[in-house]
Amino acid sequence: MAAEKNIQEYFKYVTHRMKDNDYRLEKKVCNFVSKRLFAGIDTYGLDKIASQRRQEERAGKKTINIYVGRHLSEFDWQEIQRVLAHQNMMTSVQAGDNLFIGPLDPLLRHLGGFKVFREEATIFSENWIADTIYRWIDRLWKSKACGKALSALHFPRRKPVKIDKTLAKDIYLAYMNQLINVEGRDILVFPEYIKNSDKKVKYGRSYSGELLEFTPLLFKLLRDINKNSERQIQLVPVNVSYERVVEDQSFRTLEKMKTKRFRKNLTYVWDYFFNYTHWLVQKKKGRAVIKFGEPVQLRKKFDFKIRLHDDLRKRVGVLQTIFPSQILAYSFHNDTEVAESDLIERVAKTLHELQEANADLRYVEGLPVIEIITTAYEQFNQNRTRRILVKDAKEKVYIIKNQAVLSQYKNHIVHLFQKWYDKEQLIKTIKYLTHKDEKTYY
C-alpha cells in the first residue's frame, strides 16, 4: 500500500459529503420517488438495532454497524438509507464509480455514498462540473488544430489524476479504515459478485434475481480492521424484498448497452432515467419489505467462523419475504405456458414447500391459492411496458411473454431450497483436524 499520507490525498475523489442528521433536500426527493413507486414499505427488526444504539449513546460508546445486504434493485440502498435516516442512523454507502454521473454525483454523496473505483479512472477534478469542463477541453487539446490554438493562447493543459487498479484498492482499504476508526461511521455494503466468462469479477445488482455469492475479501478486510481497532464492529444482515422490482425489464437493455462501445458510457444515464421516471407509466405499485437480522459481533481474536461470507449470505438470504409474485413465478418452473388448473396445483405445492422451508409467508398466509395467482397476475400483466404474463381466458392458460423477466422472481427464492453448509459441523471438523495435526490456530 502507498504511504498513508499520500493515500489520504485521494480521499477527496471518493468521500461522502453527508452531514450528521441532515437529510436536506435529498430526503424530500427520496420520499417523493418512494411514495410513487411503492404501494408501501414495511420495516422489521430495526427497532432492536436502534434501541442498542440509544443505550450505547447514553453510555458514551458506539458499536459500528456494517449493514450487509442483498442487491436486487437500485432502490435497495435508497430505501435502507431512508428508514435509517428516520432513526438518525444514516450510513456511508459503498457504491461503484459508474453511479456517480453528472449532477447525481453530489446527490449521492450527500446521501452518504462514497465512490469505489471498479476500473481504471482518469480524474480532472473532484467537482463534477469542473471535471466535465476539463474533459471537454482535454479533447480539444488532442486535436492538432485546437491544441495549437490553445497553446498559442497560453492556455495550460490540465494534468489528470490516473487511478489504476492497485491504487484503487489502496484507496479503498485506507478509506474504509478512515470511515470506521476516524469518523466512526456505520457502512452499508452489497458484497454480491459473479465471475464472467472472461473470469473478470463483477460487483453490483443481481440481474438474474439470484442471491449471488458474497466476496470473502470484504469480510477479511473488516476482520483485519477490527483486530487493530479500539472500536467494536458488528455485521447486520439486511434484505429488501420486492413484490415487483422497478427496473426488472431494463436489465437486458443495460447488458446490451454495456457491450456497445458508444452506448457503454450512457448505460447508467439510461438506468437512472428509467428508474426515476418509471412511476409515470407504472399502472400498479408493488410493495416492499426491509428486514434487519440479528447482528454478528466481530471478535478481536480469531475464531472458527472462517466462512464468514457464507454465514452472512445465509443470514441475509433467510430474511427474504415471500410475495405472490415469487410464488407464481416459481410455480411455472421452466415452462412458458401452463394451464390454469395445473397452475393452481403448482402454486399450492410451492406454498407447501415454502412452509417446510420456514420462509417468511406473512403476506400470503391464509390467502386462497386462486387469490395468490390473481394478485401476482395483476403485477405481471399491467400496461404495455410492464406486461410479462397474459391469460387466455378462452383456453384457460397462462402464457409468459418475457421469460427472462419472470424467471427473476423465481430466482428471488431459489436459495431458500438450497442445502446450506452446517456451521457447527464445520467447526467440529476443523477442531478435529487441528487436534489430529497437533497445530494451534489463533
How many distinct beta strands? 16
User: Under the CATH scheme, which architecture of the largest domain would be assigned?
Assistant: 3-Layer(aba) Sandwich
Low-confidence stretches: 429-442
CA radius of gyration is 24 Å
Portion of residues in beta strands equals 15-25%
* Main CATH class of the largest domain: Alpha Beta
Structure, described:
The protein has 442 residues and is an alpha/beta fold. The chain has 2 domains: 10-116 and 174-317, Glycerol-3-phosphate (1)-acyltransferase (3-Layer(aba) Sandwich), CATH 3.40.1130; 324-411, Arc Repressor Mutant, subunit A (Orthogonal Bundle), CATH 1.10.10. Helix content is 45%, strand content 16%. The chain has helices at 4-8, 11-14, 24-37, 46-59, 75-85, 104-110, 128-142, 144-152, 165-183, 216-227, 251-259, 267-277, 308-317, 324-331, 340-356, 369-380, 403-411, 423-436, and strands spanning 38-44, 64-69, 92-96, 113-116, 121-123, 161-163, 187-189, 192-195, 201-203, 213-214, 233-242, 286-292, 296-297, 337-339, 389-392, 397-400. The strands form 4 sheets. Strands 1, 2, 3, 4, 7, 11, 12 and 13 form an 8-stranded mixed sheet that branches. It has a 3-stranded antiparallel sheet with strand order 9-8-10. Strand 15 and strand 16 form a beta hairpin. Helix 14 (324-331) crosses helix 15 (340-356), helix 14 (324-331) crosses helix 16 (369-380) and helix 15 (340-356) packs across helix 16.
